[in-house]
Write a structure and sequence with these properties.
With about 350 residues, this protein is an all-alpha fold. It contains 13 helices and no strands. It starts with 12 loop residues before the first helix and ends in a 5-residue tail after the last helix.
């Protein structure tokens, strides 16, 4: 029977020597490759040991030099050092006599007062919240006005009989409703308006207005389409033109119908302004982050920001509720009869 073409190792003394030689060669080859790859990766144990030995030798030399320099001091220098040491020890003993109120020894009320002072009083940090609130309201108002105008144009384009107006408006709505508002803001700030000298808050207002128009325009379209066609036909039969039909009939009824959802979209826009800090705009949320980074306190900055947003949204929602009440024809008749005093 033929044996395979392999290296056969006999059982004699020559085969034992060959085995030892083979093992030694394999062992040294493995060590060589291991050291090579460890040196390439910067993790060689050998070089690490050498570096540690050299570092220890340098440290010992430094200690010897320091010892020699200390020994070479004059008596006057030694007296000066002793005087400074005695002065520092006496000041330390004096300060240690004063009561030090550490954070562990403070009561809950004392901790709360201290955190409140660090958040609002120290360095006038309350002004950061006021400035952030002003920036938030400014962006909200600009985005609402611009977005409402764009929403009206988009509503008219969606209801148009011309395909070259209707289909682009439909594509615009699909893009805005399918893209996160933060991505829209980043594209507007870093891509579209990156080479134009436009303030960051204006760019943020434009981006938020584009997103607001996509939703408000559909709300307007649903409000207009829900009007009874009999009213429009009766107005045309009475001789009203297209402008008068829109201004006297369509606009009041559609406004009254879409006001609740429009109010909700406006409040949502106010809360969405909290993302403008991603483009280095110091709004209310960014101001709380700045204060939190300076004081290392998270409770009061975040709770204060939430309360300010809540109060602002409630105040603006109350304004819309009053406008909705004034637009209701039932309430107008009651006011005409003197039943209510508003």
């Amino acid at each position: 029977m033929r044996t395979p073409a392999l290296i056969k190792i006999g059982s004699g003394s020559s085969s034992l020597a060959m085995r030892r030689r083979f093992v030694c060669i394999a062992f040294f080859t493995a060590i060589t490759f291991g050291v090579f790859f460890n040196v390439r990766a910067g993790n060689s144990t050998l070089f690490g040991a050498v570096n540690s030995l050299s570092a220890s030798s340098r440290a010992s030399e430094t200690n010897e030099d320091a010892t020699e320099s200390v020994a070479s001091l004059s008596e006057a220098d030694a007296d000066k050092v002793e005087a400074d040491a005695s002065t520092s020890s006496s000041s330390g003993s004096t300060s240690s006599d004063e009561p030090i109120l550490t954070k562990d020894k403070m009561t809950f009320m004392q901790k709360t007062i201290r955190s409140f002072e660090k958040t609002f009083i120290v360095d006038g940090r309350y002004r950061l919240f006021l400035q952030g609130l002003w920036v938030t309201i400014k962006i909200t108002v600009i985005a609402t006005l611009l977005g409402t105008a764009l929403a009206f144009l988009q509503c008219m384009a969606r209801r148009s009989k011309r395909a070259w107006l209707r289909y682009p408006a439909k594509v615009y709505i699909g893009i805005m409703q399918g893209t996160p508002i933060l991505v829209v803001l980043l594209i507007a700030y870093y891509v579209v308006f990156t080479k134009l000298a436009i303030p960051g808050d204006v760019v943020a207002a434009i981006a938020l207005a584009l997103n607001f128009a996509a939703y408000a325009g559909e709300q307007m379209r649903s409000g207009v389409d829900g009007i009874d066609q009999g009213l429009l036909e009766a107005a045309r039969a009475l001789g009203f033109g297209r402008f008068h039909v829109f201004w006297k009939i369509i606009f009041p009824i559609a406004t009254r119908r879409i006001m609740p959802v429009y109010k909700g979209e406006f409040i949502s826009l106010l809360k969405t302004t909290s993302i403008v800090g991603y483009v280095a705009i110091q709004d209310l949320t960014k101001a709380s982050d700045i204060v939190r980074g300076r004081t290392y306190e998270a409770f009061f900055p975040l709770i204060a920001t939430a309360i300010i947003y809540l109060l602002t949204a409630h105040f603006l929602a109350s304004g819309f509720a009053y406008l909705e009440y004034r637009l209701n024809p039932v309430n107008r008749r009651k006011r005409a009869k003197g039943e209510v005093n508003v």
